[in-house]
Every structure is written in structure tokens, then in C-alpha cells.
Amino acid sequence: MQKFGLILAFVFGFGAPVLADPVIGIWKTQVDDGAYAHVKFSSCGAKLCGKIARSFKAGAEYKSPNLGRKLVWDMVADGGGHYSGGQIWQPSKDKVYKSKMSLSGNKLYVSGCWGIICKKQTWTRVK
Q: Which of 75, 102, 112, 117 has minimal CB crowding within 10 Å?
């Protein structure tokens, strides 16, 4: 019985990362108003969200009051590296926009829209 438990632990312990969504990880945002962040994506229930893990200004890390805050939430994986239905917060303007994303290799194309006006960024995978 112990062997069976060890086998299950091995299979699920090492198999889980394979089943994880490819966007899960840490992404570097583009510079916005002189600052950028590392955003850590993870599962938030059945959806995906990204929280600010590190913040940088003028090329140096600093302790932003936004550390740990959700930057992206309610994102749904549509398959094929496409995500929709999410919200994204722009800290420099303190505004929330509808968002969608598209993943291609180590690049994450993120857009935030208010009505028909959209702003796009390309984020790069950190790890």
C-alpha cells in the first residue's frame, strides 16, 4: 500500500507541471510611465490571474506599494495560446480595462481595451 501511495505521489507530483497552463510563470511587462514589473501568473480557481511579484523603475528594483496586487484577473484559456474575458489594471493610471492575451513562445501579447480603443504590450517570459 505504501508503494502505491509513493507511485501516486510521484505521478501527480511530477505530472502536474506538464498539465499546467503554459502562461503560468513569471513575465516582464513593457515599461509604462518609466516603470515595469515582473508578473507571476497562476491559477485562480478555474481562471488565471497575474500578481505583481517585483517592480522596477529606472532599471533598478524598488518596493512598490503595488507588490502582491493583481494586475490581471478572470483570464480564461481559449486554447491554442489564446486567452480572453480578463481584466487588466494599469497602475500608472489606476484604471481597469477588458483584456485578452495571446502566447507565442516566450512572448505574451497583452491588450487592454476601453470600448474600441485598445493598448497593446508584449511581455517577455522571465521563468
A: 117
Task: Answer whether 0.90 is exceeded by the pTM.
Answer: no
**Is residue 70 in a domain?**
yes
H or E segment and range at residue 9: helix 2-19
Could you give the CA distance from residue 98 to residue 112 in angstroms, rounded to a whole number? 5
Torsion 89-68-65-52 (CA) sign:
negative
Host domain of residue 100: 22-125
The DSSP call for residue 1 is -
Count of structural domains, the chain: 1
pLDDT band at 63 (very low <50, low <70, confident <90, very high): very high
CATH number at residue 39: 2.40.128.520
Q: In whole angstroms, give the CA distance from residue 124 to residue 89.
A: 18
